[in-house]
Automatic annotation (TrEMBL):
Name assigned to this protein: RicAFT regulatory complex protein RicA family protein
UniProt superkingdom: Bacteria
Record-linked Gene3D superfamilies: YheA/YmcA-like (1.20.1500.10)
Biological source species: Sporolactobacillus kofuensis
TM helices/strands, residue ranges: none
Amino acid sequence: MTYQYSKEEILAKASDLAGKLSNSDQIRFYKQAESKISANQKVQRLVEQIKKYQKESVNLQHFGKAEAYHQNEAMIDKLQAELDAIPVVQEFKQSQEDVNDFLQLMAKLVSSRVMDNKQ
């Protein structure tokens, strides 16, 4: 005989698992990197400039201003390269990849267990 879990029991277990995952090394490192990014004024300035140029690019493309659009895109690429060269940004991007890989692994494990128990 197999036990049938209620929706509430499953949600409670999922909440418990989420709490445990949020205390993992990968998630803690990600949160620290995110805090550093948020506190870094140079990073925030570059992000705002990139957003501004991206909005301009949408408008330029919409109005068929090809040359201005390409100049704008070149500026975005330059600013993005400057942003990507900052060590705290590199650290943040690596932590994002690590967390993504970790969460994908967790999702595969859960899916695998669900399918194994289904049979």
